[in-house]
Amino acid sequence: MPVEDEEFFAENIESVNRLTTGILLLGNVLAPLFIVISKIGIFEIPYSHSIILGIVIALFSIIQSIFVYVLRWHRIPMVFGLCVMTGILAYMGTNGHIGINISYALVVFLSCLYYNAVLIRCIALVCYVLMIFSIYFRAKIMCVSFNTTESFYFFS
To answer: Residue 64 is inside which H or E element, if any?
Structure first.
C-alpha cells in the first residue's frame, strides 16, 4: 500500500474516532433529557433506567475521550466506540417506551466511515444480535409488566 494511502487511512481513522467521541459526549444529554421528559409527562421512563444510562454513557464517553485525545490510540477506540454505541442502544431498546430499532443502522453507517470491511461486518453482526436480545428482553419486561404468564408471540 502506498504511503499516501496509509496516511489517508490514519487521518481518516483519527477523524472518525473524534466523531464517535463527539457523539458519545453528546449522548450525556440523554439521561437528563429522559428525566425531564418523564417529569413533564410526555412519556414515562423509569428514573433508575435514566440514571443507569447516564452513568454508563458518562463513564464510556470519558474512556473514549482518553483513548482518542490523551493516549492518541487509533485502533482500540475505533472498535470500542462503536461497540459502546451499540451497547447503549441495546440498553435503551430494552425499555418499551423507547423505539430505537432503526438507530442500530446508524452505528453500522458510522463503521462504514472507517473503510474497513471486516469491521463493518463485525459491527453489523453485533448490532443485529444486540437488537434481537433487546427486543427479546423488552418483550419479557412488557409481559411481566402486564402480569401475564402467556408467552409472547409476534404473529398470533
So the answer is: helix 47-65
Cell of 19: 466523531
**65-79 pLDDT, tens digit each:** 999 999 999 899 999
User: Which pLDDT score, from 0 to 100, does residue 116 have?
Assistant: 92
What is d(CA 94, CA 24) in angstroms, rounded to the nearest whole number?
19
Choose among 41, 119, 115: nearest CA to 80: 119
Counting beta carbons within 10 angstroms of the beta carbon of residue 29, is it exposed (0 to 12), middle (13 to 18) or buried (19 or more)?
exposed
59 grid coordinates: 463513564
Query: CA 78 to CA 33: how far, in whole Å?
Result: 27
The pTM assigned to this predicted structure is 0.83
Alpha-carbon distance of 34 to 49, in angstroms, equals 9
What 30-37 contacts at long range (C-beta under 8 Å, 24+ apart), as own/partner pairs, is 30/54, 30/57, 30/92, 31/55, 31/57
55: amino acid identity, one letter: I
From residue 6, give the alpha-carbon distance in Å to each of 1, 28, 89.
7, 34, 32
